[in-house]
Request: fold
Amino acid sequence: MGTGGREKTESGGCVGGARAGGPCHGSGEPASGMDEAIDTRGLLDRCMGDVGLANLVLSKLREQLARDEAELERLVGACDLAGLGRVLHGLKGAAASASAGPLREVAASMERIVQGGDMHSARTLLAHLHDEAERLRRCPALGEHDHGHGPIPGADESERRP
Amino acid sequence: MKLLIADDNEVSLTLLHATLSRAGYDVEVARDGEEALTRLRSGKIRLVVSDWEMPKLSGVELCRALRGLDAPGYVYVILVTGRDSSAATVEGFAAGADDFIRKPFEATELIARVRAGERILSLETRDVAIFAMAKLAESRDPETGAHLERVRSYCRVLARDLSQQPRFAGRVDGEFVRLIYLTSPLHDIGKVGIPDGVLLKPGRLSDREFEIMKMHARMGADTLEAAARAFPGVPFLEMAREIAATHHERWDGTGYPSGLSGESIPLSGRIMAVADVYDALTSARVYKAAMTHEVARSLIVDGSGTHFDPDLVEAFLRQEEHFLEISRAFGEGRAAA
Reply:
């Protein structure tokens, strides 16, 4: 499953709370779920275990991202708070549906900031949103072997016991 | 069942469509509120899963518009929303939404909520079907609609009383009480098939005419049994059939159409027998005056163990004040108590 797991990518590090270069697919384990671009287990659960449907959902999210990023740039330039709020609200919901937690968080933070009228912070967060979008774009498609169920903590240890 | 998804977001739409199609629903899609409203105007869709935020018409505005329509049937609306404030919930319900599901939704929860909506719609369908059948029976019956109201109320009073008796524990519960109230107006539906010359005769029936009249119990039961066979597992049809078939049976086996006796007569039929006879005795007819409650009471007590189930006569005596109240509430041509 591509970059899934816990390896660090080239860019690594955190940008404004969202890990710009973190792994793509996560197992949904509490300790690491928010760092991964997609919670694979959560997405597959929502898709009733259907990998094809999960990939379709991700491709729809990527299509929406491509449109929304351009629209957000335009709206920030035009200082259109109402327009920004509408697009960010939709993106937040789509990201949540696709189990793209970090993207949802950035969109939600930006929506809150826009509601407060802080365009300067909104511009800063838009850069973070682009980073998350890029991370999502780099995620490979889920394969048939991706069940989203990461290792159960402690399971190996219990098996080793006599 | 056909249902409509109204959502402008492709990610959400993809998930909703896949989840509901796999659950066996025939799914239509609208990508904004106006398109949804247009599709709903057709009257062919009874359940909508709608996003809150949509172009042209929001989910809440769609609800308001829908409730303002002169639609042939009720449309059940589930709003999908990321809003979790109670103010939003209140706003949605006030607009006419029936249920909510939070984003991001779980497939099992969505299906459970849609199924709950289906159950509510089926209740409405059931009530409409029973009402239509009862009205049909009433249109052929010289007795009035008030008779049906009184009889169903007497049945409910008796069933409620039995539900409190340990002897009937497990047999008579809230659902039984609801069903007998709902289905008892169908007891004489077989009269639809009785010739006018007999049914509308304003005097005492000859032996031959009475034999024809007695056929109404069998005809009603056959009609309802055919419906029960076509829709197996529908409890109200089974109880309606029981009542139509057995409300003229007598505890001692001398009734009709089957000559059943004792507990081989279904409980619903035994309840109906007391309710129907009490109402017949206390109602005026072209050929007879209405009896007082006291006279009717003594006749029912006399019939305990012969005409009526003794347990039902005891229930009647415990509830006779309620019988009098119902008789007064829906009375016309009633004798003074």
